[in-house]
Amino acid sequence: MDLPTLWFWIVAFLFVGYFVLDGFDFGVGMALPFLGKDDVDRRVMINTIGPVWDLNETWVIVAGASLFAAFPEWYATLFSGFYLALLLILVALILRGVSFEYRHQRPDSRWKSRFDLMIIVGSAVPALLWGVAFANIVQGVPLDSGHNYTGNLIDLLNPYALLGGLTTLLLFFTHGVLFIALKTDGDLRVRARRLAARAGLVTIIVAAAFLVWTAFIAAFSPMYLLLAGLAALALIASWILNARGTEGWSFGFGAATIALAVLALFTALFPDVMPASNDPANSLTIANASSTTYTLTVMSWTALIFLPLIVAYQAWTYWVFRKRVTREHITEAAH
Question: Member of which family (predicted)?
Answer without folding.
Answer: Belongs to the cytochrome ubiquinol oxidase subunit 2 family.
